[in-house]
Structures are given as structure tokens and as C-alpha cells.
Amino acid sequence: MNSTKTAGMKAFRADILHLLGDPGATLDHETSEQIEYIEDGLLVIKAGLVTELGAAKTLLKTLPADCEVIEYPNQLIIPGMIDTHVHYPQSDMIASYGEQLLTWLETYTFPTESQFSDPAHAKDVAGFFLDELLRNGTTTALVFGTVHPESVDAFFEEAQQRNLRMIAGKVLMDRNCPDYLQDTPESAYADSKALIEKWHGKDRLLYAVTPRFAPTSTNEQLAKAGQLLEEFPDVYLHTHVAENKDEVAWVRELFPESRSYLDVYHEYKLLRSRSVLAHCIHLDDEDKQCMVETGAAAAFCPTSNLFMGSGLFDYVGMNQHGVRVGLGTDVGGGNSFSLLETGSEAYKVTQMLGKKLSAFQQLYLATLSGAKALYLDGKIGNFEVGKEADFAVLNFAGTPLIKRRAKHCNDLHEKLFSLMMLGDDRAISATYVLGEIAHCKSSYGGN
Questions:
Q1: 397-412 pLDDT tens trace
Q2: Which of 60, 179, 199, 292 maximizes the CB count within 10 A of its CB?
Q3: Quick one: which H or E segment has residue 39?
Q4: Are the C-beta atoms of residues 319 and 22 closer than 8 Å to each other?
């Protein structure tokens, strides 16, 4: 990285790639109106917002003489990546062996989450978690806390210090879990309301009402979650649905009056704009249509779904229905914080279903599509003028293998695809938040 003199305005010089919309299945950026690629581009930022984007040779002439210019030669700037489903308290139990969902919760998750009544422990894990996201080029995430309000306070405090756009919430869970993690409908409502009033809309922070999943909330608690959404209509709803077949069968026993698992949430008025449901694997067409009509979004978590043996999410089918979809790492069910690796797994899942997922679609899922799923595409997701300047710098020489493979690529799609298949945190040279450095790899390979 080379830089010149500092000024109020900053400009970043590198190859630049972002999406203006869904690129579809195209492999040729030159024929798509939704893919903007600028070889030797310049991204100009002032007060944390994008002010100009274009060819470096043209824009450099227009900059003030004292404008700071930061250069990343032969590297690629992309928008900051967006993780639409992840559990920060599960950072310390990532890669836990050998169980599927329900047993995994009892064996690993609940004991780990019991520690988050301790604010010092919550602060330590939250700080590590956010730094790990930044190392991987992720600048926004929709995040589960635990049942303890302390877990959310610690998370938001750490996110606020880093000036991040983050969404999080306290878990609601009043049955089918250990006594030491249970709340009540009344305490869940009161704690969530206090946290919303304290944190929602403060700086870049947003709140999500967070029932863990239908089996761990009584009808009364789900009704209280719906009440919170009515009282605070611009907050989020974040939960799980139809991840595992045993889970689906259990919901059928617990809610026999509901047509489907998804219908449980619909009956309690939990499906709306800014409702994000993780997994959505075992849904039928009526469920998908309900999501379209209510504006709810799905978080596609391929790494977790494969690791836990849960099933294959049909992204192409969901997209054809018109469901909003973002990409989620689902740490700790997922075994990587990297959305590059998660995109690689999304490609493989799609292949298993006999369909295709291009590198441009993978990038779309990790950026603008995630922003649309969170209804934040007016603020983040690409480099349109006026948007918040969160971005990552990808290094095509981040590892010896990536560097060697890049030399044999014939076009942009092949080069991007190989990086996304082979990349992880080592491929991230730097991460910027509102135009300020938030992570910088201490050393990286040259050409």
C-alpha cells in the first residue's frame, strides 16, 4: 500500500468491482448492466461516504492537490461484505465435532452461552468476534446474542467503538432449554424493549428481536415478540426456520394448529420487512410465497448446513420465487468467518442441486443482495454515490496458490471465481469502515 499526503477527502486507487443489481448467470461483465468493473479505478470518499467512482486517469486530475490517495496496485476493491446470520457467542465453540442440530445445541451451544451473563466475558468474545469479521472483509452482520442482556450491551459497545454498522439482539427462550438460560414472556419483552430504547438507531447500530426458534418460545413469548415489532416497526426480527428435518417434525408436534413451521411465525405477525430467517431449507412453495408477500428474507448458510448435515438450500429456486436472500456464515455451526469461503460452499451446494452459481452471483450474495435482505441497500452494498464507504481489498497474490492460479486466468470471471474458491482471510489485504482503515494485513504477496 502506498499513500500520499492526508486531506479531508480520500481516494483509493485499485481495480474496483461492485454490483448494481442481480447479475444473473452471466459470466461476462462487459455485457451486463448490473456489473460495474473499473480496471485501475478510483473510489473517492469524503466524510465516510462515496462521492465519486470512475477511472483513475480521469478522476485523479480533478482531485484537490492535497487529497490523500491510497493505492493498492494489482488488487481489487469490493464493497464490505455482509453476513446475514451469525452467532457471536459461539465463537469459542466453532468446529465442534459430530452432532446434528438438536443434540448440538444441548451438547455445545447452551453450555457455551451460559457464560454470557458475565459482562467481562461477553466483552472479550465480542471484541474478538468483530476483529475476526474485519480480518475477513465483513463490515456488517446480523448477529445473535444470548438470553442475557449483558451479551447485547457488550456487543454493541464493541461495535460502536469500531464505528460498525451492526444489527443484534437478545435471545428470547422460555422453554425447551436449560433453566439457566430461560427467560419469561414478560422478562423477554421488558429486556428487549429496554435494549431497543438504548441501542436501536444509535450511531450505526440497529436492533433485532431475536426468538431463537419456535421450539424454544411459548405461544405467549412469540406474541410478545410480535408486540415488540408493532411498537417498534423499524426494528428487525431474526430467527431460524426449517433448518433440520427433526426440528421441522418437532415444530409440527409443538404447533399442530399451524400449516407449516414458517406459518408459526406468520400467525404471530413476525414476518415483515426486516424479518430475516436463517436456513429456510425445508420450505414448500406456499412458504416461499408467504416470504415474498411479507417481505421477509432468507439467510443462506451453506457452510453450516453442510457441517451440520442439515440439507441443501436451493438459492436458484428461492431467487426465482423472488425471495430476498443474503449469505450467512452461521458461526459456530458454520466453521469459517469468511464469506469468501461461504460463497465457495454456496457454489458447491448449488452444484449438488444441478444448478450453477457464478462468481458474480457469489459476490452479489455477499454484498448487495445481503444489503437488500437487510433493507440497507440505500446505505451499503455497493459504491453508488452517497453510500457509506465500507469496503474490502482483495489480493490476487494473497497465497502462493491464489497467485499462481491468477496467472492462468483468461478473464475477470475466471480470476474472481478462482479467488473465491481458494480465498479466505489471507486474501483480504485491508478492510475499511467509513473510509478509515479497520484491518490491515501486516504483509501480503506482491505480483
A1: 999 999 999 999 999 9
A2: 199
A3: strand 35-46
A4: yes
